Amino acid sequence: MSGLLRRIGLVMTTLAVIGGPALAGQPNSQRLYNSLAHAAPELNPQALKSALSAMQCAVANGASQARHLAVIDYSQPSTARRLWIFDLRQKKLVLRDLVAHGQKSGENFATQFSNQLGSYQSSLGLFRTQESYQGTHGYSLRMDGLEPGFNDLARDRAIVIHAADYVNPLWSQRQGRIGRSQGCPAVRPQVARQVIDKLKGGQFMFSWYPDPSWLKRSAYLNCKPQQVASILGANGG
């Protein structure tokens, strides 16, 4: 009975976080989902639901709220505009554009994902963006992966958001896909500054693909409070 009461308490806590000022006035998770789904009708509903669930699980268990949420739907081809950035306060889409996947994740479609150094593959799951900086690719954005075993080596792997000339729809006319990265979610140079400025400083990014292992084991998709709180504590929330 006590276990049931604890689970009910966690549900009520999550709903309070979702419905209160913590998410900048969103009445509840369903209304937030409905608004964002309406703003982005071509985004896979499961990808959006998963992104919101993962983010809300993080917030309910100690993460600070974010203004923006980025969703990458890797079930879509690289030739599609599969990056969405949402303003959570205004419940609107602020940008949709192309994004690259890793060289060894696949050709036009990404089908393989990794957390390993040198894999040249993209990673799945929930990320927290951090500091912007000037690097090899110019203005770039570091981020930390929050999912052990799936993306928590992102910083060690130098998985960052940066501009890349190969993120170009003209490539698809020659090769049937845009160019690929070494695992980074690279974007077009024309939108890179806008993407980074919207996402820097503690926003959420979520990379989705119907990978059975990740769907089953993700601490955020399955909202495991103790594990999530431990992860967030280690990452400073």
Automatic annotation (TrEMBL):
It comes from the Bacteria. It comes from Pseudomonas citrulli. The lineage of its organism: Bacteria, Pseudomonadati, Pseudomonadota, Gammaproteobacteria, Pseudomonadales. InterPro entries: YkuD_2. This is Murein L,D-transpeptidase catalytic domain family protein. PANTHER family: HYPOTHETICAL EXPORTED PROTEIN, MUREIN L,D-TRANSPEPTIDASE CATALYTIC DOMAIN FAMILY PROTEIN. Pfam families: YkuD_2.
